[in-house]
Amino acid sequence: MDILWWQIAILTIYAGVQILDNLSFGFLAQPVMAGLITGLVMGDVTTGLMIGGGMQLTILGVGTFGGASHIDANSGTVLAVAFSVAIGMNPQQALATLGVPVASLMIQTDILARFTNTFFAHRIDSKIEQMDYKGIERNFLYGMIPWSLSRALPVFLALTFGSSIVKPVVDYLNSDLKWLGDGLTLAGALLPAVGFAILLKYLPLKRHYPYFILGFIITALFATIYGGLSSIGTSVAVLDDNFTTVFSPLPMLAVALIGFSFAAMAYQRNQQTSVKVSNSQNQTHQDHLDEGEIEDDEL
């Protein structure tokens, strides 16, 4: 299937808007949202969520501490989902061959947007000296133009002219270079685990390792129990036509709420300990002051 002109137009607009949202609210500028929106536009929400969720987990532990430019996972997700749906590409292969490389390459356009924006920053400086408040506001808004174009233009060009390049490459990966295509698919499946590993490196596991172990066990235990119940229900339904009960799996939201409960209890306990330590220190300080205080009868 070809990518239609209206699909290119909507995805280009979204690519330009999401970076502005990333600089402000950050609601639309998430890979999972990029996957959902692109999936809706392309007519395959399942593929969009698979690639968007995979990219979200991949960058889970990626941070720009002390830095400014970072990979644009949203634009990478848009292109990966669009081409995966358009040419029937494996979602995991699209994540590894398109999503991550494009996200990394977009660092250069991010730097270009920041560099171009200095022009408007200098114009604002001159408007400040002139006390031209309307000019300050106007040039501030002009700064959105290079930001939007830094994402919208590459996405537009890739969607417009990329199909003729991507499709032969994908066909070649799945035929003559099938071993490489299978390897890239496997790499795409492992990327979310890499994101988790990077995240765990920043978390204070040495201090809270019991909660980490407990969370893993709870998740595995519930998955086993609910998976077994679902299998039993399927078997009974085959034997008895009147058995219509459906066993739903435990949603990840429930597991997340369990983890949140443990985190809240640990936080409250730490707060109480901090209050006790603070009160003890204040009392000790007060005792020292009382020891040096001169009473009236000592004068």
Topology:
Layout: H1 5-22, H2 31-42, H3 45-58, H4 73-87, H5 91-129, H6 133-142, H7 144-161, H8 163-173, H9 178-202, H10 205-239, H11 252-291
Helix pairs in contact: 1-2, 1-7, 2-3, 2-4, 3-4, 3-5, 3-9, 4-5, 4-7, 5-6, 5-7, 5-9, 10-11
Region (Disordered): 275-299
Transmembrane segments: 25-45, 140-159, 179-199, 211-229, 249-267
Main location: membrane
Short account of what is shown:
With 299 residues, the protein is mainly α. Helix content is 79%, strand content 0%.
Describe this protein's structure:
The protein is built from eleven helices and no strands. The longest helix has 40 residues, at 252-291. 79% of the residues lie in helices and 0% in strands. Helix 3 packs antiparallel against helix 4 (73-87). It is an all-alpha fold and 299 residues long. This is PTS sugar transporter subunit IIC. It comes from Staphylococcus felis. It is a multi-pass membrane protein.
SSE series = HHHHHHHHHHH
Strand fraction equals under 5%
Termini Cα gap: 98 Å
User: Biggest sheet, open or closed, and with what strands and sense?
Assistant: none
How many helical elements? 11
Helix fraction by DSSP (H/I, runs of at least 4) = over 70%
Rounded radius of gyration (Å): 28 Å
| Overall mean pLDDT | 82
- What's the overall geometry? flat
Q: What's the quaternary structure here?
A: single chain
Class derived from helix and strand content? mainly alpha
Which parts are unreliable, with pLDDT below 50 for 5 consecutive residues or more?
none
Q: Could you tell me the number of beta strands?
A: 0
Biased composition (Polar residues): 275-284
Subcellular location: Cell membrane
Region (Disordered): 275-299
Membrane topology: Multi-pass membrane protein
